[in-house]
Design brief:
128 residues, mainly beta, four-stranded antiparallel sheet, 10 strands, six-stranded mixed sheet
């Protein structure tokens, strides 16, 4: 059974930084693509970033490029999201998700992300 537990959210001022973590169990983490998705208050889910199973390939939505960095520690079954220069529009519940993409496919596509298994989320509030 896939279990994903996010942590690290909180209240931060605009321009501040946070590091989110996600511990995973119940599936072969080191063999799985992983992603972060988020849901802003009153809006639907949006894909944020993904990382290949070996940590080499990374993908970001345009609005977070240069500010967010996704990483993973396969020895600890943990996924991270380092967020810098946070803005009010980054306020959302952040979820880690098990991404079904595989390295055997060319490129990357996050099609179907709302249906991916995800954790309970951690709230990030950017307000000054």
């Amino acid at each position: 059974q896939v279990q994903l537990v996010e942590s690290g959210g909180g209240l931060v001022q605009p321009g501040g930084s946070l590091r989110l973590s996600c511990t995973a169990s119940g599936f072969p983490f080191s063999g799985s693509y992983m992603s972060w998705v988020r849901q802003e208050p009153g809006w639907g889910l949006e894909w944020v970033s993904s990382i290949s199973n070996d940590g080499v390939d990374k993908h970001y939505r345009d609005s977070v490029k240069g500010r967010f960095t996704i990483s993973r520690d396969n020895a600890k079954n943990t996924l991270y999201l380092d967020m810098h220069n946070l803005q009010s529009e980054d306020t959302a519940v952040y979820y880690c998700a098990r991404d079904p993409w595989t390295s055997s496919k060319p490129g990357y596509d996050y099609f179907g992300f709302p249906s991916w298994p995800r954790g309970q989320g951690t709230l990030v509030t950017v307000s000054g």
